[in-house]
Write a structure and sequence with these properties.
It is built from 15 helices and 18 strands. By secondary structure, it is α/β, with parallel strands linked by helices. The protein starts with about 25 loop residues before the first helix and ends in a 30-residue tail after the last helix. Bound molecules: flavin-adenine dinucleotide and iron/sulfur cluster (SF4).
């Protein structure tokens, strides 16, 4: 049954609509540095929050998750104060739990039946509780070796998930990453939300799998893709969107104009990056939110303004991040389009023009139209450009026949994300968990492809802890959404 065809959840009359508050740093203290903003529940509060879950017979939270995380079960175990059990359930389907418990956009919470009456169960925060209070120092166990090798290009969430899916099935996997760290775009997420140590905590559980990580190697430049195709039995291309998009207005090359991915990466690497005291950030997505909040922490008590060409309701950013930015004192200017950046060598201002929004298009977005005679200059000494990313396709030729999605990442057009080259698959995703869900689909297709070469059929994922069984959605459930 497709998700559209699923009947709406029935709302039980006696559910508790009020969430136990998640502890957070006071606003006044937190913008002076990059300390973590949200903290874990205490054990007692976690149990109270978990007891709000009514353990739906049909768990909408699980169905909404691109990786079919059995949230209902780990919440049940937390309510029973079995934190070790909850940690094991969490890590059974989600090898990047330490990262996702901090940054997942929690599609499960949007689907949670409690949302019909109030605030949904804090499913993501409870995942953190499972890891913090349960034994999360577990190690994944590979199945019998398959004696086939897979190369993964790119160590973002998609590449890491594919490596795990194939590693636990007994394949020998080599992950090639162009950067000096693993985690892909998660490496740009500011430390007040998650850190590089979180990626490393998750990656450490891979240590007994036959997965080798190779950093500082750009496929297509340092090694041609063709050599991987020749040397490995299959290749998974998960190169994501590592290049920034430009604003495309005059003055973009002036001193004081920074591109968000570069800005955020430099901060996370503890390399010097300076902003002035009047910062303007252009964009309306999650990268823009991370940029305004990071700029606020770098501007020595100055001011940060966000300029977005549509309205608040059209912002693609996570509402929690928008609220966080607003709470911390970021000024929002809606329905303004950048026209040019002014100044001599250094930025002195951003000229913007008001726009009117037309009726929603086929995708539900309202097209902005500039209003003549409405130009104004916002004085500033720094402009941060956060208008999207795109794939770097150097070395990935037309023979792959890739399609580029609306959000800019490349993927194979065929079933299971197969590309035009036999044995080569490509996928990624618009959020960490979507990238992981798509990688699962691709890894399953790779397993079928390689099993076929051995004269066998592909198998479902075994229990990654070497036990007897693993969780699978029972028959009749909707398949996870993996777009
Ligand atoms: C600032 C920021 C904040 C975000 N916040 C969130 C959030 O809170 N929650 C959320 O769910 N999502 C968030 N996202 C989105 C999320 O990070 C991405 O959707 C996700 O990382 C995509 O995963 P991926 O594996 O498809 O690609 P990527 O993460 O882009 O990983 C691709 C990897 O491939 C490597 N690579 C590229 N080309 C080559 C090559 N030729 N050879 C070798 N390696 C190569 C890259 O260096 C990179 O490590 C955020 C993104 C950004 C930029
Ligand atoms: S988290 Fe929400 S949707 Fe999931 S089982 Fe509990 S009440 Fe139901």
């Amino acid at each position: 049954m497709s998700p559209e065809a699923a009947p709406p959840p029935k709302v039980p009359p006696k559910l508790n609509p009020v969430r136990v508050p998640v502890p957070e740093e006071p606003v006044g203290d937190r913008t002076g540095d990059f300390r973590e903003v949200l903290h874990a529940y205490s054990k007692e509060d976690a149990v109270l929050e978990a007891k709000r879950c009514i353990q739906c017979r049909r768990p909408w939270c699980v169905e909404a998750c691109p990786i079919s995380q059995d949230a209902r079960e780990y919440i049940r175990l937390i309510a029973a104060e079995d934190f070790d059990g909850a940690a094991k359930v969490t890590l059974r389907e989600d090898p990047l739990s330490t990262c996702l418990c901090k940054v997942c956009y929690h599609y499960c919470e949007d689907a949670c039946v409690v949302k019909k009456k109030g605030v949904p169960i804090a499913i993501r925060h409870l995942k953190r509780v499972a890891l913090d209070y349960g034994n999360s120092d577990l190690v994944y166990v590979p199945s019998k070796p398959k004696h086939q090798r897979v190369a993964v290009v790119g160590a973002g969430p998609a590449g890491l998930m594919a490596a795990w899916e194939l590693g636990v099935r007994g394949y020998a996997v080599t992950v090639f990453e162009q950067a000096d760290r693993f985690g892909g775009l998660m490496q740009t997420i500011p430390a007040y939300r998650m850190t590089n140590a979180d990626v490393e905590t998750d990656r450490a559980r891979f240590r007994d799998l036959d997965v080798t990580f190779v950093a500082d190697t750009k496929i297509g430049r340092d090694r041609p893709l063709a050599t991987l195709v020749a040397e490995y039995d299959a290749v998974f291309v998960s190169i994501g969107t590592s290049n920034h998009r430009r604003l495309g207005v005059p003055g973009e090359d002036k001193e004081g104009v920074l591109h968000a991915l570069h800005f955020l990466t430099e901060i996370n690497h503890d390399r010097p990056v300076t902003v002035g005291r009047e910062v303007v950030v252009v964009g309306g997505g999650d990268v823009a939110m991370d940029s305004v909040r990071s700029a606020l922490r770098k501007c020595s008590g100055g001011h940060v303004t966000l300029v977005y060409r549509r309205g608040r309701d059209e912002m693609p950013a996570d509402p929690e991040e928008v609220a966080g930015a607003e709470h911390e004192g970021v000024r929002f200017l809606f329905q303004r389009a950048p026209v040019r950046i002014v100044g001599d060598d250094h930025v002195q201002g951003l000229v913007v023009q008001s726009v009117e929004l037309g009726p929603p298009d086929a995708g539900g977005r309202r097209a902005p139209t500039p209003v003549p005679g409405t130009e104004e200059t916002i004085p500033c000494d720094t402009v941060l450009v956060a208008v999207g990313q795109k794939a770097d396709l150097e070395g990935f030729g037309a023979e792959l026949d890739l399609q580029i999605t609306n959000q800019g990442w490349p993927e194979g057009k065929q079933d299971g994300f197969a590309t035009g080259l036999p044995g080569v698959f490509a996928a990624g995703g618009r959020s960490v968990v979507y990238a992981m869900g798509n990688a699962t689909e691709a890894a399953e297709a790779i397993d079928r492809y390689l099993s076929g070469k051995r004269g066998e059929t592909g198998t479902p994922r075994p229990d990654p802890f070497g036990g007897e069984s693993s969780f699978h959605l029972p028959a009749g459930y909707t398949t996870p959404i993996r777009s």
